[in-house]
Amino acid sequence: MAWQVSVPELEDRLQCPICLEVFKEPMMLQCGHSYCKGCLVNLSHHLDSELRCPVCRQEVDSSSSPPNVSLARVIEALQLPGDPEPKVCQHHRNPLSLFCERDQELICGLCGLLGSHQHHRVTPVSTVYSRMKEELAALISDLKQEQKKVDEHIAKLVNNRTRIVNESDVFSWVIRREFQELHHLVDEEKARCLEGLEGHTRGLVASLDMQLEQAKGTQERLGQAERVLEQFSNESHYEFIRKYHSTASRLAKILEKKRRNRETRSQG
User: Fold this and answer.
1) Cα–Cα dist 74/166, whole Å
2) How far apart are CA 144 and CA 138, in angstroms?
3) Could you read off the pLDDT of 203-253 as tens digits, one per residue?
4) Contact status, residue 34 vs residue 71, Cβ threshold 8 Å
């Protein structure tokens, strides 16, 4: 008989309803629903009243719940050797398998069921990790686009500087040739014109040099930011999620500042 469910889909169906991780030492309640042994122990410990199944709300006795041996064997067959142990909640000692969207922090299943994160919108760690990776990829794409615009701006500044210097050389040659044909009485006027032209050229070149230096500084900072982000994208899942929002916020501010500066230059 052919299999109707793929391995990833089967793993999704083997998740504990409390921690949303693949069952660990699964125990079966009298109602037929299974949970991780640690999740049941912690749930019983934090409830003052009788224990009710979180799925069907039937009153159960966790002390008489047998291990679900068949389920444990299926999970053992699916597991790969060397799978890393997930980090655990310091309050409930359960895996940090969820992300609280409201408080922007990693939590365990009991935090969302019994703790301070009740009724908050939560997302599995694997899902939020994939989402944040996509958001980071979009930010890196924006950064590359901004880098391209800075490169084009630098090329334009360099071309303008070269053109102005070359035009200044041509005008200087024309002025010198014309004044050589004039009488000695116009020498002072010739000197004044040359001085004015050279001063104007120095002012333009100095202005362009300053803009060029600023643009190169921006180019270097954007390049450093891109390298930092590429290194950051290789962080572990937990470090990546923990640092993601502060890093993304700083990058968004840099990009927004660049856009405003560019718009200011365009209006000017």
Assistant:
1) 78
2) 10
3) 888 888 888 888 888 788 778 777 877 887 787 788 778 777 887 787 777
4) yes
Distance CA 62, CA 131 (A): 37
Does residue 34 sit in helix, strand or coil? strand
Concatenating the DSSP letter of every residue in 185-253 gives: GGHHHHHHHHHHHHHHHHHHHHHHHHHHHHHHHHHHHHHHHHHHHHHHTTS-HHHHHHHHHHHHHHHHH
Its pTM stands at 0.39
**Tens of pLDDT along 4-48?**
555 556 666 778 888 777 788 888 888 888 888 888 887 777 665
- DSSP H helices, 109-186, are 109-113, 125-180
How many residues are given for the chain? 268
The whole-angstrom separation of Cα 218 and Cα 224 is: 10
List of domains in the chain? 9-120 (3.30.40.10), 126-267 (no CATH)
